[in-house]
Amino acid sequence: MHGKFLYWQKSLFCKKSTLNFITRGLRLILGNLLGGPSPEKRSVLAIASIARNLGLALFIAGLSNSGQQLIPTLLTYMIFGAVLAVPYSIWGKRRMKLRDSK
After folding, report:
1. Which of 3, 39, 45, 55 is found 20 to 30 A from 92 (Cα to Cα)?
2. 10 Å Cβ neighbour count for 102?
3. Domain carrying residue 51
4. 7 in any annotated domain
């Protein structure tokens, strides 16, 4: 019985992580699309739409009794944000350089 519970728990974590990654990607795309004509404003809105206050979340998790269980989820959330934000930032900088060179 214990093995089935661990499998279910790992499977649920994997599904939540996948959903988290997809929703953050969609927020990044929507932030870029809704940012208006200025590339600077689009980049700011896109990055702001996926950024959250991780420090506050870790602090609150540390105060709760189940805080140790929440830390892997919060770290996964942080890693997904970086995986999405860094390539987007590099792409945005290249796009602005190309626009400025014309």
Report:
1. 55
2. 4
3. 38-102
4. no
By three-state DSSP, how is residue 64 classified?
Answer: coil
- Do the domain assignments include residue 3? no
Closest CA to 76 of 10, 12, 18, 8: 18
Q: How many residues does the chain have?
A: 102
Query: Distance between CA 46 and CA 33 in Å, rounded?
Result: 8
The count of domains in the chain is 1
**Contact present, 50 and 31 (Cβ < 8 Å):** yes
SS3 of 1, please?
coil
Within a domain: 29: no
